[in-house]
Amino acid sequence: MSGRLLEGINLCCERDHRVLFESLNMGVDAGEVLQIEGPNGSGKTTLLRVLTGLSEATEGEVRWCGQPIRKARTRYYQNMQYLGHAAGIKQALTAHENLRWHAALTGLEGDDQIDDALAKVGLRGYEDVPCYTLSAGQQRRVNLARLHLLPAKLWILDEPFTAIDKAGVSAIEALLIDQAQQGGAVILTTHQDLQHVPGLRKLTLK
Amino acid sequence: MTAQVDVKQVNQGIFIAMIRRDMTAAFRHPSDLINPLIFFVVVVTLFPLAVTPESDFLREIAPGVLWVSALLATLLSLDMLFQSDFQDGTLEQMILSPQPLYASILAKVFTHWLLSGLPLTLLSPLLAMMLFLSADGTQALMLTLLLGTPVLSFIGAIGSALTVGLRKTDLLLSLLVLPLYIPVLIFASGAVQAAIAGLPIVGHLALLGALLALAVVLAPVAISTALRISLSG
To answer: What CA–CA distance (Å, rounded) separates B106 from B220?
Structure first.
């Protein structure tokens, strides 16, 4: 078993006859935070979707703990949380109901901890309000509460800072540092400069 | 041994959680639920007005009219299956779950049937009475709707999963799904006509049951593959 937690080998991706990235080798180890940078349209989100297995790379392979993710799908998804571009929550449901569904998806019984997780992202008192009445930033926070609620070795975060206020941004940074210190790994895309994250690595797409 | 029991419990967990989520979301926006039902009622009530109120004639066309309207009403309700989940990103969370996608999909289709096929079945005796359908015919109609509408939900879900990533899918969805609906329509309305004529309908029902069994086993496989393809774009 090779040591890297997640590894992309010789990845190549083409969309609409345009090559987004070619022979890209990348990976994360436990305890690392990897920031993917690049201008708009450079394929950051596509790369993240390839890493989660949602999209197929035109060439190359993604490996989880040395095994191709197609073969290790269940084990990979037990240990990975993906926060995508969309909010990932149902507007008609309350924050509590949304998180309860996410907990069931992961196979965890998290009913007691849901309110705690919501309090940690600053949504105490909003547990039982339908999500369409929340602001865009608060909706992102409901989604972020998953990181508190559902432990995972690897987080893949697509623009986690969108619509989040300053205090929220530093709270997320602290969360990233915490995850790395506890032996987890994070891959994220953002245009924000992460100043306080020690051992931050960057990957720039052109 | 214990591991196996665990997996089963977890499957049940996601099955129930999925049904609960979709039901709650649907009942908070009841207009989407009611639209297909209103469509069903309106189409059937317009027939006597537009064609003729004569009871003999209505009795004769009743099986066809009722089944065609139920089928179109189901088609109308297919939007609510995967489209909103795709837009708010919860569909990709479903695919990225360590739980089997099969369980989530079965739960989604079952919920769709509970919210469309089942109410149509329960409404049908009332409309059958308006079209002077006999008691035997009404009974056959309800039985065929009970067996046939879940098949419609399963087949519709395949089409809906194939078109979920595309814009302006209404026409494409109908073109994909309608040909596959036709066997159900033929056997079901045939059964009702046989019942009116006093003939046994067991054969028709057995065929519908076979279609349902096939759909339960095979459709989720097709649906999950279709969803993975639709989301990979």
So the answer is: 7
Domain boundaries, chain B: 2-231
Distances (CA, A) of B145 to A186, B105, B124, B220: 51, 22, 9, 21
Residue tagged 């067991």 (tokens): B202
At A66 the three-state DSSP class reads coil
Please report, as a single letter, which amino acid is at residue B23.
Answer: M
**Nearest chain A Cα distance for residue B97, angstroms:** 6
Chain A interface, mutation test: which of B5, B22, B97, most A Cβ atoms within 10 Å? B97
**Is it the case that residue B2 has pLDDT exceeding 70?**
no
- The 10s digit of each residue's pLDDT in B164-212 is 988 877 789 999 999 999 999 999 999 999 999 999 999 999 999 999 9
Separation CA B184–CA A171 (nearest Å): 56
Main-chain dihedrals φ then ψ at residue A7, nearest 5 degrees: -140, 130
ipTM: 0.90
pTM for this prediction: 0.91
Q: Hey, which residues 28-57 in chain B have their CB within 8 Å of chain A? A: 28-29
